[in-house]
Design brief:
The protein is an alpha/beta fold and 150 residues long. It has 6 helices and 4 strands; from the N terminus they run βαααβαβαβα. A 4-stranded parallel beta sheet has the order 1-2-3-4, sandwiched between helices. β3, α5 and β4 form a beta-alpha-beta unit. The C terminus is likely disordered.
Amino acid sequence: MNIYFSGSIAGGRDELTIYQHIVKQLQAAGHSVPSAHVADPNVLANEAALTERGIFERDVAWVSQCDALVAEVSTPSLGVGYEIALAAQLGKPILCLYREGLFVSRMITGNPHAQVKTYTTLDEIDAYLAQFLSQCLNKPYHPLALQRNS
């Protein structure tokens, strides 16, 4: 599967080791992760040559083309929220993970279009990923996109 990984870049890099773990697990399971750069400690420097518009267009295309989205939402990020909302509008399966005990926006925790899980260990993250990916592979998702008047 093609899985978009979403994690805070500009909002803070406190969860970098978790991002790296999630991306590594997804790739080890044979999935494509076009946004693996989010887990790179040098992501800001590496993307310095890209325009803001270029990053927006690239990331919107990647979310649009993905089969599912996995987001680590412990660190608040406008970009991550945007990507989750876009994935929900497009009917993509969504898994949001965050550290137990943190306060996360209710726009995330109350989203009926996403699975939202808290974790305390890497083993819990791995179990949530395995369950989510199994669900994605075994049943088709139904678009949740807003109805448009033609």
